[in-house]
Specification:
By secondary structure, the protein is an alpha/beta fold. 38% of the residues lie in helices and 17% in strands. β1, α1 and β2 form a beta-alpha-beta unit. The longest helix is centred in the first third of the chain and has 21 residues.
Length: 460
Amino acid sequence: MAKILVVGGAGYVGGAACAYLADQGHRVWVLDDLSTGNRPFLLAEGFTHARAGDRDTVRALLERERFDGVMHFAASSLVAESVREPAKYRENNVLQTRALVETMIECGLKRLVFSSSAAVFGESSADFIDESQPLRPINPYGETKLEVEKFLASCARDHGFHSVALRYFNAAGADARLRTGEWHAHETHLIPRILAAAVENRPVDVFGTDYPTVDGSCVRDFVHVEDLAQAHEAALLRMMARKTAEPGRFEAFNHGSDNGFSVLQVIDEAEKVTGRKFERRLLGRRSGDPARLVASSRRAQQELGFRSRADSLRSILESAWSWERKRREPKRAVFLDRDGTINVDPSYIKSPDEMVVFPFSADALARLKAAGFMLIVTTNQSGIGRGLIPPEALPRIHDALDLQLGPSARIDHYEFCPRLPDDPQTRRKPKPDLLLAAAERWGIDLAQSFMVGDRDSDVE
């Protein structure tokens, strides 16, 4: 079995990969900045809160943990947003990845599975897109993925680096055990938008009805997220099987179901799965959307043993519908003050080295999680407001807390307020506002929840 660093493992596809890898017996560590990922869905032995391109943090982690390989999922991935903000996409997708790979090479770790995209092909005229098709992206998102692929190819040539790019076509669905699934603050993906409309009894937006397709709506290839997770494992094991003396190699594989479904066809199938009828709101095209993207996964089937399930769309919709309903179920939580409740209170923790957890904390919190409670820390962080703690130290402080608590007692969410003492305030302490914000974000039933603090005023 392998020890694997999953960059972006708190996100949708990365989280599914972590679940699958753990089920196969691999040891998994996640690095994620939580800008779009969800901390409660972390399924890993360890967690580091940082960006992929944070060279110092990544270098320290690689030198300490000695991984067999890295899987890289962290990226900005919205086509329309990439058209509006191309600089953001180059920074997040290209420059951060370059820094990650360069740090890996410095540390002697030369195996990477990279999540690429069908967007590298742009508007292909092929009915089924294989790896021989021209790479002509039509939006900045696709351009960033292609630039990274070219960089990885140069690293194979110049540094003996081994990497596999998996170009997938619309990941969808949820983990069979419903541990992970799609949950974005601003959802743009078709299938979760459809299922949210079913729950909320509202129309489904259809962007573009004049494409040269069977019914005028875009045609896409949907691949189950669990199938993708399996493909990532196969790609890493393929690299690990090579002899260390072999020259570096870059490979790219397309991953899809080899079936195309129009947006309107997906809505039709969702009506069958949910048993509900949808109003369809027909809108204009979105910038950067190709008419048709359908994969040929033949090469992946032959060389990686990749197999997409035969009933992919139905299976995707059924698992995604189960996940959508589960994630909307009211949750209960224990809201915790950090200093003096979980860990010893030294007045202000200024560095991770000062984190000392009470001997009973890990066991007590693990028992609460096993009983179905989310663990949420609400902290004023007045040390930041007073200038005693640098803001960039906070993720490292929480990493130290996580490490001492262990995966069974890991905190699900931190809600903090770096407010200055003299700032305008509606309450003497911000804890009630922090608690309410966290409860709204995660759908928590406060009547079934609890607050634990080190002072009566916190609990009140």
